[in-house]
Amino acid sequence: MRKVYEIKDEELIKNILENAEFGTLAICMDNKPYSVPLNFVEINGEIFIHGAKKGKKIEIMNNNNNASFSVVESYSLLPSYFSTDDGRASPATHMFKSIILDGHIEFIEDYDVKANALEMLMQKYQKEGGYKALSDVIYKKIINATCIYKLVPSQSSAKFHLGQDYNEQRFARVKEHLLKRGTKKDLDTLKLMESLRV
Q: For residue 4, what pLDDT band results from cuts at 50, 70 and 90?
């Protein structure tokens, strides 16, 4: 990983995990990789996921609990001419934030921990409320029937590619093009790019 893109700030990492709508869980059995996009919630540095108690994913994790989880926030795609006028294709790039967490899967059996994880999922995805708390007895059957598991990270890395290494000339040219194209994504990207200028 290029050091200029590497991010160590735990608050920035936590913020991405809190705001990401989904992440991709990568698992493997018999040297055959399998990855699946999932809703999730981060609780105390661990990634909690819910789903059915049976299926391919569960079978794989029961045989091999090693896993990797990734989250990406996509920002503006920059055509090559945003950076240069010499006709080279190589400056074309995509701005993004990404996190990769490597670790192992643990299945949750404790009812209260499961209920809390589901409550935290609801708080993340239905911020406006409008539902009875998952501690309510009406959910007992559903909670018992739901599989909850977590990724316990042993290693993590975060990478932001938002023009941190651009010299003033390239940054100014990219800024001009982003402002000219002017989509909401472009303006959000530019704001982030400017915030990371040292």
A: low
DSSP sequence for 9-68? -HHHHHHHHHH-S-EEEEEEETTEEEEEEE--EEETTEEEEEE-SSSHHHHHHHH--EEE
- Render the burial of 18-57: b for 16+ CB within 10 Å, e for the rest: eebeebebebeeeeeeeebeeebbbeeeebbbbeeeeeeb
Instruction: For residue 2, give the nearest of 117, 131, 168, 162 by alpha carbon.
Output: 162
Residue 33: C-alpha distances to residues 27, 46, 185 (Å): 6, 22, 33
What whole-number distance in Å separates Cα of residue 102 and Cα of residue 183? Answer: 35
How much is the pLDDT for 125? Answer: 96
Task: Spell out the domains of the chain, with CATH numbers in brackets.
Answer: 3-164 (2.30.110.10)
SS3 78: strand
* Helix (H) / strand (E) containing 102: strand 93-108
Q: Is the pLDDT of residue 2 over 70?
A: no
CA distance linking residue 18 with residue 151, whole number of Å: 15
